[in-house]
Specification:
Number of helices of chain A: 25
CATH class of the largest domain in chain A: Alpha Beta
Order of helices and strands of chain B: EHEEEHEEHEEHEH
Largest sheet of chain B: 2 strands, antiparallel
Oligomer: heterodimer
Largest interface: A-B, 42 and 33 residues
Radius of gyration of chain A: 23 Å
Strand order of the largest sheet of chain A: 2-1-6-3-4-5
Distance between the termini of chain A: 32 Å
Number of domains of chain A: 3
Number of strands of chain B: 9
CATH topology of one domain in chain B: Alpha-Beta Plaits
Helix content of chain B: 25-40%
Bound molecules: iron/sulfur cluster
Strand order of the largest sheet of chain B: 1-9
Shape of chain B: globular
Number of helices of chain B: 5
Strand content of chain A: 5-15%
CATH class of one domain in chain B: Alpha Beta
Largest sheet of chain A: 6 strands, mixed
CATH topology of the largest domain in chain A: Aldehyde Ferredoxin Oxidoreductase,  A, domain 1
CATH architecture of one domain in chain B: 2-Layer Sandwich
Strand content of chain B: 15-25%
Structural class of chain A: alpha+beta
CATH superfamily of the largest domain in chain A: Aldehyde ferredoxin oxidoreductase, N-terminal domain
Shape of chain A: globular
Chain lengths: 641, 160
């Protein structure tokens, strides 16, 4: 059965490896993936642990449904205490690794300690080998995967890995697999680098048992039809996430030149239709029929002929709008380079755009930049800075640190120009006209983050009736909901609901594009209850599944509080409140986030979560989620909180 | 008319859903390494190619079998293994030029595509239609039409 997969504890200092089964009880409480990771993170780290020290953990997990017949059951989660924020470190990735890890017999890995020399892990047939990786150190994220396949003489091997950025402890280095898949955020790649862990490879022959194979096969077909018949999926199949840009930039919802403008003009070259011209096809993650990743070859310059995948919407923002560049080639080249070196495209672009604003303001000078001209829209500079950050060369060494560390190193009021929450940079979306989206990034458990709770469908002007159907399921809700994305009413509930939805999805290990993220008619709790039953045999009600997602999310909150977070951290930078949007359609022009109304939203959001006015989960809530009872066996999360 | 799996590699997204459903159809559990087809990839070059059994007219897997366990059905064209006769010597595995005859280390038996008894699941699930179940003549007529269309575009460009 798929539920027989184990947790392995690997100590890189001593070389000791231990495995433990995952109890049904833990499954029912946390499902798997991200939620169970949070349990392990809480339990296996001490308060105040140094993110880059040997006592931090590197977590890897497959969600409950990974590999099973559940449309896009591809997702792996990685985690640890974040070297970027000092709070929850956690990132999700598609590709093919998760299913392979389960085939090898494992659902969760807790890696601690530090290897004396570079190593990689090889998971196969219920075994884990710690193998020498000295010859792989210094390789990029593509070569290393290829070299491991060659070395082990097996085409089927799937690997998670770091590139040079992770080795060099770039604070936002990511974990990568295949050509394009990245567990991008919160700097987990730097944790691996600090442990001398270059990669984790897997190949397995153990069946993933399906509880009711015939029924699961037929039901999976229904779910796939439900997903692929949605309009948004059809668009994604063709254009990938760059399609979003077509709407957001023309409306004026794209933060441009760091945070000076909210629309990139004269940017036809990076419109989705223009990017589509360069695509030679699309690629999908395991068992996914949305296949949102473009495939392209770089057409000009020194990288001409190089193959890569993407670009994502994020890259249009990071290497387009934010830095004031309007060239497709720059977007495609930078997208390739961050993939190659293994670092978060979003954070990379944000750090560069911040540096460019500092240059404009005279806080950084040619002397600081080593002669690099950081004028807005300077394509060569942007590309050069990506290299410098990955290698920690010159000014790149400062920009490779976390936003707050970099600001401390530069000083001179530079922090004022950072666009971040809890020390993690914002996506290039401009949330000033959209309070729901603004609230989401302000309160998210891993710092500014759209994938933790963004009610993206809030932008669709859906009728209240439709919103109510979505947002009062499976937990009843009869408070306000409004179709106007500029409104403050009802948004806190939407944000909380989405937080629990994404948390659940990440515990299940399926892709968010197959759920209520960009499409309102996508599968949710009802469907997941069926998928869980048919695939794993576990009987869970939609509400129980919702609560499992909520439990994981609450544990993230508790972890952050343990690490020193307070209500003070659930905030936006001042510019959201003080600088109205200068551009865009009349509906979004002149908008800013009202301070008083924002405070009310945060209060309401806490109240919906049943957290007190300081954002601390109440005793009653913890009891309701059974996150409080003391259990001496230590197998319950209770002993944690 | 004999129907076979027809592959259109350009449409394949490399998602391996076909491998997944194939293994469930035949083994009742997910294990892409026990699927009867395989998606080959050259990741760094961005290329993929689904490899399927060709249901050969003159199948080397059949010819080499010392037990006469492999046989080609005259009506359907399906090349199939009779497991009552098969001794698991894997001669057929070495004879197949496509690696389409494979050895299942879990089930301890040779395995090949049986077209799911006439309703191939890889085809049923492949949304981009990179694998189709078509009569044999279609393979060439599809390619011919695609090539002809390209040539015609050039032609009419010249004529203009
Ligand atoms: S929608 Fe995109 S990210 Fe999600 S599983 Fe499919 S290909 Fe991967
Ligand atoms: S299901 Fe179709 S698109 Fe996906 S790998 Fe198989 S042949 Fe390719
Ligand atoms: S298994 Fe190989 S040799 Fe036999 S029919 Fe299929 S492709 Fe031909």
């Amino acid at each position: 059965m798929s539920l027989s997969r184990k947790i392995a504890f690997v100590d890189l200092t001593t070389g000791k490896i231990e495995t433990k089964p995952i109890s049904k009880e833990l499954r029912r409480k946390f499902l798997g993936g991200r939620g169970l990771d949070m349990y392990l993170l809480y339990k296996h780290t001490k308060p105040g642990v140094d993110p880059l020290g040997p006592d931090n953990v590197a977590l890897i997990s497959a969600g409950l449904l990974v590999g099973t017949l559940a449309s896009a059951s591809s997702r792996t989660h990685v985690g640890g205490k974040s070297p970027l924020t000092g709070y929850v470190g956690s990132a999700n990735v598609g590709g093919f690794f998760g299913p392979e890890m389960r085939l090898a017999g494992f659902d969760h890995l807790v890696i601690r300690g530090k290897a004396e020399k570079p190593v990689y892990l090889y998971l196969h047939d219920d075994e884990i080998e710690i193998r020498d990786a000295e010859h792989l150190w210094g390789t990029d994220t593509r070569d290393v995967q290829d070299l491991i396949r060659q070395e082990l003489a097996d085409d089927d091997i799937q690997s998670l890995c770091i590139g040079q950025a992770g080795e060099n402890l770039v604070k936002y280095a990511c974990i990568r697999t295949s050509i394009k898949n990245a567990a991008g955020r919160t700097g987990i790649g730097a944790i691996w680098g600090s442990k001398n862990l270059k990669a984790v490879a897997a190949k397995g022959m153990r069946d993933i048992g399906i509880a009711q194979p015939k029924e699961a096969l037929a039901y999976n077909k229904e779910i796939i039809n439900q997903v692929t018949s949605a309009k948004v999926s059809k668009t994604m199949q063709k254009l990938g996430t760059p399609f979003i840009w077509g709407v957001t930039n023309s409306t004026g919802l794209v933060r441009t030149r760091n945070f000076q403008l909210n629309q990139l003009v004269n940017a036809d070259d990076i419109e989705p239709e223009s990017i589509e011209e360069d695509l030679v096809g699309t690629a999908g993650c395991f068992a996914c029929q949305v296949h949102c990743r473009g495939k392209y070859f770089i057409k000009e310059g020194p990288y001409k002929g190089t193959y890569d995948e993407g670009p994502e919407y994020t890259s249009q923002g990071a290497f387009g709008a934010e830095v004031g560049c309007t060239s497709k080639n720059t977007v495609l080249v930078c997208n390739h380079l961050v993939n190659y070196y293994g670092m978060d495209n979003l954070e990379t672009g944000s750090m560069i755009s911040w540096a460019m604003e500092l240059f404009e303001k005279g806080i950084l000078t040619l002397e600081d930049t080593g002669g690099l001209d950081l004028t807005w829209g300077n394509d060569e500079t942007v590309i050069e800075l990506v290299h410098k950050i990955a290698k920690r060369e010159g000014i790149g060494d400062i920009l490779a640190d976390s936003p707050l560390e970099a600001a401390a190193r530069i000083g001179k009021d530079s922090e004022r120009y950072l666009v971040h929450v809890k020390g993690m940079s914002n996506l290039h979306s401009d949330e000033r006209p959209t309070p729901a989206l603004a609230l989401n990034i302000a309160v998210s458990s891993r710092g500014s983050d759209h994938l933790r709770g963004r009610p993206a469908i809030d932008l669709y002007h859906l009728p209240e009736k439709v919103l109510r159907q979505i947002y009062s399921n499976p937990i009843p809700y009869d408070g306000p909901l409004t179709s106007d994305y500029r409104d403050y009413e009802g948004k806190p509930w939407q944000v909380m609901w989405q937080e629990h939805l994404y948390s659940t999805v990440d515990c299940l290990g399926i892709c968010k594009y197959h759920t209520v993220f960009l499409g309102p008619n996508m599968p949710a709790y009802e469907e997941w209850a069926n998928l869980i039953r048919l695939n794993t045999g576990l009987e869970l009600t939609p509400e129980e599944i919702y609560r499992a997602g909520e439990r994981g999310y609450t544990l993230e909150r508790l972890f952050n509080i343990r690490e020193g977070m307070t209500r003070e951290d659930d905030k936006l930078v001042d510019r959201y409140h003080d600088e109205p949007t200068p551009l865009g359609l009349p509906v979004v022009r002149g908008r800013f986030i009202d301070r008083d109304k924002f405070k009310i939203m945060v209060d309401e959001y806490y109240a919906h979560h049943e957290w007190d006015e300081n954002g601390v989960p109440t005793r009653e809530k913890l009891e309701a989620l059974s996150l409080n009872t003391l259990d001496k066996s230590g197998s319950e999360p209770s002993n944690l909180v | 008319m004999e129907k076979v799996l027809v592959v259109d590699a350009h449409k394949c997204t490399g998602c391996r859903l076909c491998e997944q459903v194939c293994s469930v159809m035949h083994e009742g559990s997910v294990n892409p390494h026990r699927a009867r087809l395989k998606i080959m990839k050259w990741e760094i070059e961005g290329e993929v190619l689904p490899m399927v059994c060709r249901q050969c007219d003159d199948p080397p897997c059949r010819d080499i079998c010392p037990m006469g366990a492999i046989d080609k059905n005259d009506d359907t064209g399906l090349v199939q293994v009779d497991y009552d006769k098969c001794i698991g010597c894997r001669m057929c595995v070495s004879a197949c030029p496509f690696g389409a005859m494979d050895y299942d280390v879990v089930g301890k038996k040779v395995m090949k595509c049986d077209l799911c008894g006439g309703d191939p699941q890889c085809v049923a699930f492949c949304d981009p239609a990179a694998i189709r179940f078509e009569n044999k003549a279609k393979d060439s007529s599809n390619a011919r039409r695609a090539a002809a269309e390209a040539a015609r575009a050039v032609q009419s460009e010249k004529d203009r």
